[in-house]
Amino acid sequence: MSDASDTNGPVLAADGRPLKASLNRALRKQKMRALMLIAPLLIFVLVAFILPIADMLFRSVENTIVRDTLPRTVVAMSSWNSDEAETPDEAVYRALFIDVFLASEAKTHTRLGSRLNYETTGISSLFRQSGREVGDMAEVYEDQFEDLDARWTEDVFWAEFMGDPAWFAQAQGAEDPGPTFVLKDGISDVLPKTADAYATFANFVQVEDEDNPAAEDPWALVHAMLYEDLTEQDISGYDGFGADLLADAAAAVEGFEAPSYKSSFIDMDEDWASPEVLGTIQAYSPPFTPGYFLKAVDMQLTPDGIEAQSEDRAIYLKLFWRTVWMSLFITGMTILLGYPVAFLLAKLPMRQSSLLMILVLLPFWTSLLVRTSAWKVLLQQQGVINDLLVWSGLINEAGRLVMINNQLGTIIAMTHILLPFMILPLYSVMATIPPSYVRAAKSLGATNWVAFWRVYFPQSVPGIGAGSILVFILAIGYYITPALVGGTSGIFISNRIAYHISSSLNWGLAAALGSILLAAVLILYWAYDRIVGIDNVKLG
Amino acid sequence: MIFFGQKKKNDITDREKGCLLADTETNDGFVVFDRVQKSYDGETLVVKDLNLSIGKGEFLTMLGPSGSGKTTCLMMLAGFETATHGDILLDGSPINNIPPHKRGVGMVFQNYALFPHMTVGENLSFPLEVRKIAKSDRESKVTRALEMVQMGDFLNRRPAQLSGGQQQRIALARALVFEPDLVLMDEPLGALDKQLREHMQFEITHLAHELGLTTVYVTHDQTEALTMSDRVAVFDDGRIQQLDPPDVLYEKPKNGFVAQFIGENNTLEGVVKEIKGDTCVIALDDGEVIDATPVNVSEVGQRTTVSIRPERVEYNKERLQEGAHTLKAEVLEFIYMGDIFRTRLRVAGSENFIIKTRNAPDQEKLKPGQQIEIGWLPSDCRALDV
Ligand SMILES: Nc1ncnc2c1ncn2[C@@H]1O[C@H](COP(=O)(O)OP(=O)(O)O)[C@@H](O)[C@H]1O
Ligand SMILES: [Mg+2]
Questions:
Q1: How far B218 CA lies from chain A's nearest CA (Å)?
Q2: pLDDT, tens digit, for every residue of A299-338?
Q3: Does one domain contain both B251 and B309?
Q4: Residue B226, helix vs strand vs coil
Q5: Helix count (H) and strand count (E) of chain A?
Q6: What's the CA gap between A41 and A362, in Å, rounded?
Q7: Does A436 contact B113 at a Cβ distance shorter than 8 Å?
Q8: Residues of A in contact with B103 (CB under 8 A)
Q9: Considering B226, B256, B286, which residue would you say is the last residue of a domain?
Q10: Model confidence over A157-188: pLDDT tens digits?
């Protein structure tokens, strides 16, 4: 008995430390070394696989574009209910005016237009048009101030009027973009909206255009804000630079023409009064949206809630269903064709089985594109198989079979391409079944068939399971082959995902479709594990 | 145990017939190999001219080193390999063209080959199902077979849940449950530990005799062959070297291979000087001259190997029998093994001469370096081929 076990405390190692701690210390080095070995792969998988998938999952619900582009409108609209027949009040349109003005300066209004166009067609052109015309709405004020005094449109005047004197001294005549703009002390108290608009302008000019604000005419938006400030604020206390000009303007604004923003917008395009357009903006104003997922299952998020997509635009469920049943069918075909080959591979003497194995693996050594194109050559109506059939008289010239650019084409080509993924796991399982089992069955009186079906086949089932999972999961996400030989009736969901990624640029929808596909595979895998048991799957 | 009660009555007569057959190479045995040859590759013969007749109810063991063709013979009998030449007859009729499942031969495989996806009960009822035996009959037969191997409680276990010895019993029960006339066993005890093996040897022999089975048993373990069999066929190089009951095999090996393969054996080399009837005179290579029994030496001047079993050599003068031949020897090594003493001697130039003596109270314990005189009867000293 060691003295360690005499005490009641933790077992101690020879040096008096707790045995557990000593063991952990000894193991840590091993673990670290093991971790170092897999670290490159781990990092690679994390960067190249896990992160993109997380990004995809995020993109499928992410929707900050409305809120980023029209921040004021989103806030102003929050109390408006699209079910009401009433259009929103003036405050909403004023916010919209400022947002669209700024967005059109930053040229982000077209991006928002295309995004919202996925939901309601026509919004894209509405935004493009509005981006052009909000300028005119602001110029009404600019022109009236200019008529009052030409200095109201002068760059230097505005710079000195709004800018800190120290900044102005440096900025005058400085090279672009000049020193960073600083607002004059106290000007925000006198003219809050104007100061805010000018600061935004100065910042934009310096950061985006890299110009000197002291040498740029301010936006017409600044004049619109000045008008508002003058009607709302008491400027009598102001005695700084331009105080006299400001006092004149304050006296004059009462006579200014000031059309309401609401009527201006509705005059520009009556869509701005449509509850559908405004409702869409409102429906997509939260930072996260279920809209892409709803789209992916042929529903849509309308101002009135969730609705089924109209018949002619409902394509995704059909496509998902087709992807699943065709993948199952292809899996079944590979089992039927692959089982005898794997059986033969496991049975034949070494030399012949090596040769057969090379034939099985041969397709792996040619490019997927080449193999698929070869099927095109074989299957097309003027192709080799049809020519042979016509030549042998089995079909006549008019009756040439349509075997490509449809589901049949996809099934034939994909069965061929995925066959090795069925044969290899089947073979590796069959190779481990000792021949003595079948011999034993026969010696017990079983015919060849009974020995196969009752003794050999059950033991090869794990191979079928492994092959099926492999083939099915590969098939369900297949892209190139359906795209080349599937026509329109034989394409898979992945072709649609690719379309949204590269052609329609609707990445959110592509991400939602991809996420659903991923979830479907995981659910099937889980179900398979529950029913068959993943322990029953052997790859060798 | 009253399994296959009918056959039990025939037991004795069948076994007698088997023993009769032991000395006659007639073609009326239950299993007959008639000039059978086998080649797998068309270049070398794995089985060369095999003639063998096995009587009904006989327990015959094929014994030989690995690769000597034992399994091949068994496979030809079971129908999994075809003889390249010659006939195999079962109960008088040739079976070359009968497929394995119609031969009705029970077989126990070396790795047991219990179907892993079936329970013990399903394994046992498999041969009955394929024979379309009614369910109630099946159940009673399975139960009886399991009881026969004392495994009645294991009906619903899977093979993977059984120990090696239990699997062995189930394999045996499965081979017997459909009441075959002939049972083949290919090294069935090879994977078991020594104690279990000895126990199973006894049980298998017992069962085989009880049920009157004709058994062909393959092993490379000579003890197993000697303890279990009615007759042993010693295989080497695709031929039967000797076919005899165990005692004859041990005491009267017909050639050098059999003498070496069965039991321990001392050999001395020399030249035949004289042959007279059932004794001969051999001049050993170091000049000693001894008497021996000629086995396969035929002429004077021929080189020969003389074989003497270690336990037939005596050094205690009082125990030396009349007519024993004596030789001088020097003790090289003495090993105490409990029940026996094993002593290595230098005799007539050979340094590997072993003697075994029983650990009796009056037995002298020899010391290395001691000079002694050893002796044996000429009848225990057999002059064989080189
Ligand atoms: N299926 C086979 N194909 C080719 N050669 C074989 C086959 N089975 C056995 N052999 C050869 O035949 C010889 C005898 O084998 P086997 O009958 O298994 O011997 P044993 O059972 O006595 O060990 C060996 O040399 C072995 O290599
Ligand atoms: Mg063997």
A1: 16
A2: 888 877 788 888 888 899 999 999 999 999 999 999 999 9
A3: no
A4: helix
A5: 27, 2
A6: 29
A7: yes
A8: 443
A9: B256
A10: 999 999 999 999 888 888 888 889 999 988 88
Rounded Cα distance, A71 and A78, in Å: 11
Closest partner residue to B100 among A442, A454, A455, by Cβ? A442
The CA B70 to ligand 2 mean position distance, Å, reads: 6
β-partners of residue B292 are B280
- Which pLDDT band, with edges at 50, 70 and 90, does B24 fall under? very low
Residues of B in contact with A454 (CB under 8 A): 126
Residue ranges of domains in chain A, CATH in brackets = 1-59 (no CATH), 71-273 (no CATH), 316-536 (1.10.3720.10)
Which three-class secondary structure state does DSSP give residue B344?
strand
Considering the domain architecture, whether residues B228 and B338 belong to the same structural domain is answered as: no
Give the ligand whose atoms come closest to the C-alpha of residue B75: 1
Same-domain check for residues B345 and B202: no
B chain contacts of residue A434, beta-carbon cutoff 8 Å: 111, 113
Tell me which amino acid residue B279 is: T
**Same-domain status, B375 and B287:** yes
Residue B89: domain span? 9-104+181-256
Query: What does the pLDDT look like over A267-288, one tens digit per residue?
Result: 999 999 888 888 889 888 999 9
pLDDT tens digit sequence for A482-528? 998 988 898 999 999 999 999 988 889 999 999 999 998 899 888 88
- For A127, the token pair is 């935004």
Element (H, E) at B328: strand B325-336
B363 and B284 in a common domain: yes
Tally of domains within chain B: 2
Same domain? B278 vs B369: yes
**Residue that has been written with the tokens 């092993």 in this structure:** B219
Considering only CB atoms, A445 lies closest to which of B78, B115, B178, namely B178
Q: How far apart, in whole angstroms, are the C-alpha atoms of residue B22 and residue B71?
A: 22
Give the pLDDT score at A3. 46
Question: Does B279 lie in the same domain as B308?
Answer: yes
Residue B352 has pLDDT above 60, yes or no: yes
> Among the atoms of ligand 1, which is closest to the Cα of residue B72?
17
Inter-chain touch B107–A440, beta carbons under 8 Å: yes
> Which residues keep their CB under 5 angstroms from ion ligand 2?
B 71
Classify B1 as helix, strand or coil. coil
Distance separating alpha carbons of residues B240 and B231, to the nearest angstrom: 12
Reading phi first (left if > 0) and then psi (alpha if -120 to 50, else beta), residue B35 is in left
Confidence of residue A538 (pLDDT cuts 50, 70, 90): low
Q: Is B56 in the same domain as B94?
A: yes
Task: Encode B224-245: b = buried (16+ Cβ within 10 Å), e = exposed.
Answer: bbbebbbbbbbbbebbbbbbbe
B62 CA closest ligand 1 atom index = 22
Residue B164 three-state SS: helix
Provide mean pLDDT across the span A193-215.
91
Residues in chain A: 540
